[in-house]
Each structure stands twice: as structure tokens, then as C-alpha cells.
Specification:
- There is one protein chain.
- The protein contains 10 helices and 13 strands.
- With 292 residues, the protein is an alpha/beta fold.
- It has one domain: Ribokinase (UDP-N-acetylmuramoyl-L-alanine:D-glutamate ligase, 3-Layer(aba) Sandwich), CATH 3.40.1190.
- Strand 4, helix 2 and strand 5 form a beta-alpha-beta unit.
- It is globular.
């Protein structure tokens, strides 16, 4: 595969009220990118256990390329409870396989073929996977059209200022939601201004090409240095919102890689994430009209 689009970090099982479903933001991202016809690949780690084997079987059945190490830790799980508004609440198990993704020669070779990568803060809670992510970024081609996407994804306090600063310094696309923006702004010491001003500060401070701000039912913004795109959130019958943000990121990145404008990519991302909200779980099959 050339010009691979990588989702790097946690691959796990979401234990939902109706049963377990495969998930993890990087896996969700890579799967949805692949539905847009691009060579998506998930990089993670599993345990030598039944849940790990089932992840490989699941990805294989979906036709999702993967670079997944087997390590002496249990495969990751997340207990997910859905509140009455359809919003997921997570209990993420610690010291699991995806905390310990090894950096290998074959992973370095994959990095050299990677056109775009999406990673988050959660997979950097452990030093092993954090170092692997940073070495992967170092090994990627230094090209103006390479996309390095940091999807903040704050969970359960598994983040700190150093990880956030380093990750935002290394990306050229930052994806963040409104609640995360408030937290990040507090950490970096500029509360008290409106959301758009906070986004402009981050865009300038970290020399970003794009900043994506999602605000749930209140719409989404895509900031670039000289303009901003805003789109309302479509009204749909929500099954759950698990994976909706990951599908947004995947659709946006896939459409940028296909040569579409930021505004066009934003519109497709909004449409895709709205569709995912109408389905249970993070990885529904997308209809063909969305992925053209």
C-alpha cells in the first residue's frame, strides 16, 4: 500500500448495554477512511486472548488493513453506559495491550508509506505507546501534503499539559470538541474568551493548517488561517453517538485527500457523522452516496 491513512492508538471492545462492539477512536477512523475508498490501516496492539483474536477476525471480515502487535497484556475493553440523551459514558480499563504498542522495523516501514495519520491523547497515557506514536510521526515523509491529525479525545483524566502541547505542536490538523476546548484552554491559561477566539489562538499558537471544532447539537466549525466554515448539526433520530466524532474526522480527511475543498470536506463530515448517530455502535456500513 502507498499513501496509507493510519489510525494509531487504541483498538478495543466497547461493552455496550446491548453487547460488545469493536471500537477505539483510531480503529473507527481507519475503518471509515477505508469506506471512502482509501487505504486505511489501524495500528494498535492486542493481547494473546480470545478478545484479541476476535478483533483481528472482525477487522479482517471488514476488509480493514491492520498492523496490530500481540503483547503480554489483556486486550482493551471499555464499559459504555448510554445516558437518556444517547451520550456515552466510558470506563476505560488500564494497563492493557494498546497501552503497550511496540515500535518495530515493520512499523517504521509503514510510517514511510503513510500519507495521513490520526492519533489522540488517550493512547499516550502510557510511555510505551506514547513513544511509539512519536517515533512513527518522526518516520513519516516530510511532505507539505502529509496530514498529521491530532484528535484530542480527552478521557477520564488520561492526559496532561506536556502530552497536549507536544501533540498540538506536531499536528497540522487539530480536532477538538467544545468541552475539550474549555479544558485545554484552562490548562494553557486563557479562559474567559469565546470559543471562536480560543480556536483562533490555538490555530495561531501552533501554526495549524486546520482546526476542527465540534459542538454536538450546536453545529461544527472548521477554521483555517483566513476563514471559518460553520455548519449546523442535522436533526436525526439518534441511536447513540459512539464513534460519530471519529467518522467526522475520517470523512473530512478522506475528502481533503481526494482533493476537495475544506468547505466540501466539512459538509461531507457533517453528513457522515449524522448518519453514524442513527446507528448503534461505532462502525456501521456507510451508504454509497456518502462515500463517493
Amino acid at each position: 500500500m502507498k499513501d496509507v491513512v493510519v489510525g494509531m492508538g487504541e483498538a478495543l471492545w466497547d461493552i455496550l448495554p446491548e453487547g460488545k462492539k469493536i471500537g477505539g477512536a483510531p480503529a473507527n477512523f481507519a475503518y471509515h477512511v477505508s469506506q471512502f475508498g482509501l487505504p486505511g490501516c489501524v495500528v494498535s496492539a492486542i493481547g494473546d486472548d480470545a478478545l484479541g483474536k476476535e478483533i483481528i477476525e472482525n477487522f479482517t471480515s471488514k476488509g480493514l488493513n491492520h498492523h496490530i502487535a500481540t503483547v503480554p497484556y489483556p486486550t482493551g475493553t471499555v464499559q459504555v453506559e448510554i445516558d437518556p440523551a444517547g451520550i456515552p459514558q466510558y470506563e476505560i480499563k488500564e494497563n492493557v495491550a494498546w497501552d503497550n504498542i511496540p515500535y518495530t522495523d515493520s512499523l517504521e516501514q509503514l510510517a514511510a508509506r503513510t500519507r495521513a495519520v490520526c492519533f489522540g491523547s488517550l493512547a499516550q497515557r502510557n510511555v510505551v505507546s506514547c513513544n511509539t506514536i512519536n517515533r512513527f510521526l518522526d518516520a513519516m515523509p516530510k511532505s507539505d501534503d502529509s496530514l498529521v491529525v491530532f484528535d484530542v479525545n480527552l478521557r477520564q483524566g488520561f492526559y496532561n499539559k506536556d502530552i497536549l502541547y507536544n501533540s498540538m505542536s506536531r499536528c497540522n490538523i487539530l480536532k477538538i470538541n467544545d468541552e475539550e476546548l474549555v479544558t485545554v484552554s484552562r490548562i494553557f491559561g486563557y479562559p474567559g474568551i469565546d470559543l471562536q477566539d480560543k480556536c483562533r489562538i490555538l490555530l495561531d499558537k501552533f501554526n495549524l493548517d486546520v482546526l476542527i471544532l465540534t459542538c454536538g447539537v450546536n453545529g461544527s466549525y472548521v477554521f483555517v488561517p483566513d476563514s471559518v466554515s460553520f455548519l449546523p448539526t442535522p436533526q436525526v433520530e439518534v441511536a447513540d453517538t459512539v464513534g460519530a466524532g471519529d467518522s467526522f474526522t475520517a470523512a473530512f480527511v478522506a475528502n481533503i485527500l481526494k482533493g476537495r475543498s475544506v468547505v466540501e470536506a466539512h459538509a461531507k463530515a457533517v453528513e457522515t457523522s449524522a448518519y453514524v448517530c442513527t446507528k448503534n455502535g461505532a462502525m456501521p456500513v456507510l451508504p454509497g452516496e456518502l462515500t463517493m
